[in-house]
Structures are given as structure tokens and as C-alpha cells.
Protein: Cu2+-exporting ATPase
Amino acid sequence: MKHTYKITGMTCNGCRSHVEKTLQEVAGVKNASVDLEKGEAVIEMEQHIPWDIFETALQQGGGNYHILAPGTSESKSAEKGSKNDISETSSSEAAMTHSYKITGMTCNGCRSHVEETLRNVDGVIQASVDLQKSEAVIEMKQHIPVEVFEAALQKDGGKYHILAPGTSERKSAEKGSKNDISEANSEIDKSSMSHTYKITGMTCNGCRSHVEETLGKVEGVQSASVDLEKSEAVIKMEKHIPVEVFEAALQKDGGKYHILAPGTSERKSAEKGSKNDISEANSEIDKSLMTHTYKITGMTCNGCRSHVEETLQKVAGVKSASVDLDKAEAQVEMERHIQIGIFEDALQKDGGKYHIHSEGNTEKYQVTGMTCSGCRAHVEETLKKVEGVQSVSVDLEKAEAVITSEKAIPVTVFQETLRKDGSTYNIYLPGQDITAPPKPEKPKGKGTGTFYCPMHCEGDKTYDKPGDCPVCGMDLVEEVSLKAEKPLYTCPMHPEIQKDEPGSCPICGMDLVRMEPEASAEQKSYQKLLKKFKIAVAFTVPIFLIAMGEMIPGNPIYDWMSMQAWNWVQFALSLPVVFYATWMFFERAWRSVKTWNLNMFTLIGIGAGVAWLFSVFGMLFPGWFPEQFLSHHGTVHVYYEAATVILTLVLLGQLLEARAHSRTNSAIKELLKLAPNTATIVENGEEREIHTDEIEVGNILRVKPGDKIPVDGSIQKGQTNIDESMITGEPVPVEKAEGDKVTSGTINGNRSFTMKAEKVGDETLLAQIIKMVNDASRSQAPIQKLADKISGYFVPVVVLISVITFIVWAAFGPEPSYVYALINAIAVLIIACPCALGLATPMSVMVGVGKGAQNGVLIKNAQSLEHMDKIDVLIIDKTGTITEGKPSVEKVVPSGEISEDKLTSFLASVNAQSEHPLAEATVRYAKGKNLNYPEASDFDAVTGKGVTGTSEGRSVAIGNEKLMQEINAEVDKNLQQQVKSEQEQGKTVSYIAVDSKVVGYVTITDPIKKTSRQAISDLIEAGVEVVMLTGDNEVTAAAVAKELHLSGFKAGMLPQDKMEEVTKLQQQGKKVAMAGDGINDAPALAKADIGIAMGTGTDVAIESAEITLVKGDLHGVVKAKNLSKKVMKNIKQNLFFALIYNTLGVPIAAGVLFPFFGILLSPMIAALAMSFSSVSVIANALRLRGVKLD
Structure:
């Protein structure tokens, strides 16, 4: 007899097969067939079996499923089943086992990762994954829906998927999702209920009211209340409404917002909602327009109103915009939701006078730059200080701020408040462009507007305006801008007219002329110092001539006026020098004393200041001084010439330093020159010239012969050769074909092509290189800490030596002893400049980093530059580092009558149907030989064995020996021996059979890069152990290690194993560098003393390692090591010169040689020597620009 029963609790094919198996095992059952879709079981039995026997069996098998007797409600049956279960079975539940398909696995690392993820799911007893079968067998305490496993895999990376047996990936995902919903809904109380959901995509009050209105219109909803700050919706409904119904309503009404079921991640919900939307609300949904109302501030007249209206209407996606001047409101009708920040950017770009705000008093903003709770609290506190703000709530995790205010406050007010606070935070309306942070008061020069101390006194601290360092007093240096300067054109008669392209003046009609580009902060600083220096020289030379007049025999100047009168002339001439040209030195000296950051300007200020004040006091009150201070004219000896000459010479040193600074970052400037200002865009078949700033991702650009490539992208049509020497340091032009990547700043050869823009603006490789060089130039090398430590004690010690010098000379010196004492004390203060010591390291680092960038070695910070020279062990990956990283055919070997070309044609014909990387390699090989091949039919991929198909009417099989056995193709012993020999060298070999007869084989290998052999040899010669850690098999790894004479190797390594190997070597006291692709080697790269990212630079995240090699070959490691060695040698030379100079200079200035040789050092000579000491250190650093790294 046959009976049909209802089954509840099934959600997937795994459930279905489990129930079917359980029912078939019941005594007396001949057969059981379960239908998942209908939720039914048809059971054939020898005699009638009560349904509760089946229920008991299902309960013992896991308890998640129930069987319903005909005519019984689900609820009643479940209760009854439950009671029978309690009375008739023991409380222990038997475990159940399900088999699932797994997709996305490619290696043993994948297999173990999936296995571990599944085992961690709550309720799983054991999980075993088979890589070859792509299957997982999971033993569980009770049934777990397949969606739970899928969610776990997605949460842990998202690359892998789990499928119930016999189910397609898409069907399984959709079906499981629907069953979950229907089962969950069946137990919901039918009375009025309230549910709380998460809402994503809301950015303003307009969004909030729009979502609230949409949800309120859903049938069965009694009320809906949406909270913008919490991003939540509380919905009261007559009966349970599935979340998909709400999602479909939101999608139908614009599609920007999403609703999340409680406890569901945003990503999972979005995927689920999207699938349901496809199945339940098909593509014919009428996407009605949405209307938002906004407040507008800044309008004063109808002209403003029409201007704002026009600007808003031009925004992409806006259907219409209507602005009301009286209400200061704008009603915007749009096809889809447009974030408020996009409107704000449009208004700012068009003048910046007007601002847009959401309805109501609450606005949501994005905040950048926060990294901890301290940042969050600081931003909250700063924004609360803005007038009119009532409350501020900042969320660190979401990087959001919700601000409630009495009136609409423009976002620029908040931006300016954060900027003035000196912080690195910024605030934007949702949708605003955050790639160019607003800094309204920055200088309009060529730089970034970011300034830093060249001696890094405060680490990486930066300033947003020019000035001097509060610690050392040095002039701040400006970072070089990442962008090429955009030319501006103006009218000679009406300079207020400025346009970014040639044309005519709208006022007078004259042709516009190109404006001279504004000088950089560096150039402005140099020009300012030069002007001051000229003034100082103009007034100092007369003072010097007057003072030296006594030494010139027969000098008539004292016949013209008395000495006292000439002293007053010297005083008058010194005023412009002291109080204008060099007053900044005294300001810096005073600041250094006030903050107790004693530096070179403390010494200069005290030395020159004492000389000048002594002179003034002596001139005004000569009677106060002992006789030995008086000249034969009866006046006190004055030292105006000493003070002014010292100050002028120090100013000369500053002038030379400013000039030298601009040369230290010349590497960046040279790179910046590579970026072209304009590009040719192709639109609708027409070409026109645009500025590179206007290029957007996806634009098609024409690159003509000899042109510089404007942005990063790939060739669409054409082929060429490109000179990449300015980026990689390699002189030979590189051949490029369709699909190949091209880099901004490189130079096209003699052919034209079109390219697709993929990375623009700050994302291009050139911009990243400049940013990295800027950052590295600002970073502090560990060796500098030694110089800083010395400098910290240096100034107080020098002041003490100066005081001791004065006392000793006053007590024991020859007459006039006080005069000698004063002169020598001043000389000690002046000559002991710690400036050379402070500049020794940063100057070399700045030049070295620039030199590296020109040679394709990008250094993240000075620390890695210093440590690179000390490495003992270099760990390298095989694939992509030593080898090319993609398989290629080495040879096709025929063994029968079929020729090599014909065999290659068969090979490509069948493999063209496969997506396997090895198959693609054979197709590339055939194309490379310009062979034509027909399209194969009857293609079949035999898992773990190979592929088969029909080409030109003949059956072709390509694969391993197992496939040959399967098709009864006998392999000749000689051929077998040849193949084995190839395999022992780590190569992949596939047999080729035509019409069930083996006719040859193909050898595929991952070739070793041409540069790897020489680079590894050079590193080993330099005393570096080179160890290869690879995930590949032992045979292949051994073959590569043997060929390259590596110090050691390990095969079958997972990312975790590589990290452990790095740790072991470090525990042995070795300095370890790790070179990898920066992605799958991330743990080891992070753990190593130096992480080196290998790659083209465009595909590798430059931030992922301390050093990035643009060209992506091991020769770059040799360059990096050589660069490190030369930079460290240069730094040590600088430190030696600076220390020797001070060690010898101070005692000579103090007069220790006077008793023996009668030698004294004039303060003026000391000032000259001190100024040139700093310049000599910079000059030595500049020598690095000429070194060779190969």
C-alpha cells in the first residue's frame, strides 16, 4: 500500500535525502520518495504503519523534521509527535550527516580553510572536505540549513559557496532563502505585531521621510516610523509581512535604500533582497520618480534662485528642480536617490556661495581621519562648539556624525572649524567627494599646502601654512603636489576674468593670455630670503667698513666725524638688519627659550643679541664700563659690525639651505613633470582635448605617437611600444598589445592607440609614487634618534662652555681681558651650530627616497631604508616572484604522424572551450604561432583527469594517464619515460590522444623571470641567504631551487606556515626580508623586518609593504639593498662631518690654541663657518643623486 504524508522542516536537498533515507529505514517500508518542493513523502509499505512510527524515526534522526498524518494540522501533529517522542524515545538525539557541493576551492589551502569554517558553525560535530570531488560531508547534532553554512563562508571571505546535492548554485540560494522565510512565517502570531528593521542608504531627512512613506504604503502595514540616526524602521503590521515585500517596495520606488531583517548582515540582506526582487517583482516594475525637499541657504535674489535651480537640474539623474526663494527651499524630482553631498559639490563647484541642507534640524555627515575613541570624542567636542549646534553624536565604527542644530549650518562651517582646530579630521555631507579635502586658507602655490620640518623635530607632524619649526626654528618645507598644474588664462585688461582654456574676454573681447603659474611655497620663501639678504648686505657692508676704518692707514673718515658720531651711524645702519632682515632669528630664539626647545637660533640669538645690546648700552652709558672697554677715543668698543655680519652670514646660510632644499626633492619634481596636462578623449567617434583633471574612469582616450600617457589604464585598440624607464628605471621600451596595462607618465612609441582609463587622479601609479616619496621624506630614520639625543644636550652644554669661556678669559686673559672674554664667548655661541647635526639624516633620506623612486624602488619610510642594508635572510615566494606567475607552453612534442602545428591546432581547438589557466596557456601558444584552429564540439571536462572533445571530426583527449586509460589509449613506454623526465623537473605534462591513440604531449611550465637568476646570485654574493617558501609541490620547488642555487626552500607552505618560518628565523637573531605579492603573503610580509611587495605597482596595494618594487622582479631587491647601503654610508659621513666640525670648532673658538699659537677665532669667521657647515652637509647628501644602484 502507498500513503502520502506532509513533511515539514525541510529546506534543502540535503534535508530531502536525509528524510527519505530515515523513512526507508523504518521496518516494513518498501520504498519512500520525498518531494522537497511539495513538502510531501509517498511511502510504499508492506502493511499499514502508524504515522507516529515515522515521526519517532524522524525525531531520533535529528528532530528537526515532522511528518503529518493526513488531515492533521501542522501544529497539532507537531505537538503529538513531540509527546510521542518524549514517551517512546530516549532523550538522546542521534547525529545526522549531509553531503554538500563546494565551489570556489583551488588548492589544499582552500580545502582546509573551508573545513575549518564549517567546523566552527554552531551545532556541527565534524566536517570533512574533499578537494578533488569538491564535496563536504558534515555531521551535525541536528539539521542546520544550508544558508547557515553559506553565511559562515561568506563572512569568512566570500570566495567559496556551498550547494545542496543536485542543486544549481543560484537555485539553491534562492530556494533556501524562500523556505527559511515560509517556515519562519508559519509560526508567527497572526495578531497585530511590530518589527524593527535596519535601513541602509539613508543620508538625510528627505531619505528618512521617503522611506517612511514607502513602507507605510505597503499593504497590511498599520504604521511605519523611521529613525535616521539609528538607521532603523519600526513597522506595525496586521500580520507578518516578509522582509522581501518591503525590500521590493523600496526597490520599486527608487532602489537606493535597503531593509535588513533583524540579525542579518547588510551584505547578506542585499543579496537576498536582490534575488527575491528578481523572482517576485520582475524587471517590468515601474520605477516611479521620487521627490525630495531641501533647504537652500545663501540666496538673496531671483538671480540666485535661478542659478541654484539651473545648477541642481544639471546633476545627473535629476528630472526637475524647483527653487522657492521665499521659503528658501528646493524641490528636486529624481529618477533615483541622489545623495545630498552630490548637490552640495555641484553648488560649491559652481561658485560656493550657496549650500543645501536636509529638511528638519538633523543632518547626517561622513567624518574622515578618526582612528580611535579619543578621535571620536575630540571631533564631537569640536563640532559642539559651532554656534547654533544643539547636539552632536559621532559614531567611530560608521565614521558618521549626526548633528542637530537650531538652524541650517553649511558643511563648510564644520569643515573650517575642524581645520582651524589643527586636526587631521574632515567632515562631508554623504556623497561629497572626499578625495580632495577642503582647506580654504591654504596657499595657492604648486605644493600640497602641507608643510613639515626638514629635521623632523616633531616626528610626522605637519602644518597647513608656511612658517618655522617651533622646536628647531628651521623653515618648514612644503610637500610637492601630486597633480600636474592646470593652466589658467586671464584678460590683460580685466585680471578678475580667469578661465582654464584660451578664449576671449567676455567684457572687452580681447584674447585671453596664459597666467604665469604661482610660485611654490619653496620659491616664495627663497625669494623672500633673497630680498632680506640683499637689504642686510646693503646695510652691513658700510658698518663693516666704518668699523675696520682704524685698520686702514691714513683713513680720513675720523677727520670727517668723531668716533662717537660714527658709532651712532653704525647704530642707525644696524637697525634694518636687526629689526627687519634678521628679526626672525630673534623671534625663533625667544620661542626656543620660552618652550625650552633650545636650538641653533638660541645660540645665534644670544650671541648676536649680546654683541648688539652691549654696543647700544656702551654707546648710551660709557661711564658704566671699566677702562679696558674704552678705546683711545674715550668711547666704548662697539660690536655692531660683529652682530650684523654674524646675522647676515647666518641669513646667507639660510638662503643657501632654501635653495638646496628645492634640489633635494628634485626627484619628485622630475616625476611630476612626467604627468601631461592634457589628454585626447574619444566620445561618439569624435576626439577633443581635455585637461587630465577632467578624465573619469571608463573614458576612452587617444594616445598619439610620442605622447605621454595621461592616466593608468589598458589598451583598447592598437599596439605599441612604451618607454617606461621613468617609472621602472629599465631603459628598453616594452611591447604592449590590446588588453595590456599602461601607466601614466610613460611615453608612447611611434604608433597610435586608444586606451580605457582605469585609475585617475590620486589613484594613478605616478600619484602614488609621489605620495609615497613625500611620506617617506617626512619619516624619521632610527639613526636620527642618536643625532636628536646629542642635539638635546648640545645647546645647554654650549651655553655653559660659553659662560666658562667668559669667566676664564676675564680672570686669566691678557688685557683688555673683558673684551677678549666677551668676543670669545660670542664666538663659542656662534660656531656651535647643531643645525648640521640635525640635517645630516633627513637630507640623505629625502634624496635617497627620490633616487629609489626614479629606479622603481618605492620606500614607505626611512626606517625600512635603514634596515634594508642589515638583512641576513630574504624569503621569496615562487609564483609571480621568481617565476612569471602565469603558465606558458614550453613545447608540444608529437610522437606519431601528426605534425607539431597540427597537434597544437587540435590542442587549442579543444582547450579553447575550457576556462582552466593551463588550457588558456595552450590557446595563447597557438595564437603566438599564428595558427588557425576550428571550434571543437562535444566538449567535456573530466574532473581530475583532463578534457575531451571533437575537432575536425576527430575525437581529441588531453590529460593525464588516467584519462588515457579511460579512453583505452595505450601510452608508449618511451613516451612515458620522456614525460616522467619532464615531470621530475617540476613541469606539468598532458598527453594528447586523437581517435583513442596517443600522438604526443604538451609541456607547460611557469617560466623563471629573466632577471631572477642574476638577482639571486647578486644577493647570495652580498651575504644574504635566499630562501624560497612556496605553496607548490615538492618536485617543482626542488627543481626551481636547484636551478637557481637557492640557500634553501620549503614546499606546500600555507600563508600561516610562511609567517611561522619568518618567526623562527627572527628568533635565531636574523634580520628577515620577505618578498611576495602583498596579498596572499600578507601575514609573512607583516611579520618580516622588511616587507617587499612585488608587482606592477598598479595591481599591488603600495601600502601593504615597507618597500614596493614597481617592475615586480627580484632585481629591484638588489637595487633596494644597494640604495640602503649608499644612503646609510652618506648619513654616517654627514654625522661624522657635523660632529667633527663641532668638536674642533668649539675649543678653537673658546681660545684653547691662544696660549700656544696665539690663534683666536673671530665671531664673524665663526658665523661664516657655521653657515657653510649646514650647506656642506646638504651638498654631501645631494651626491646621492648621481649614484648607480645596479
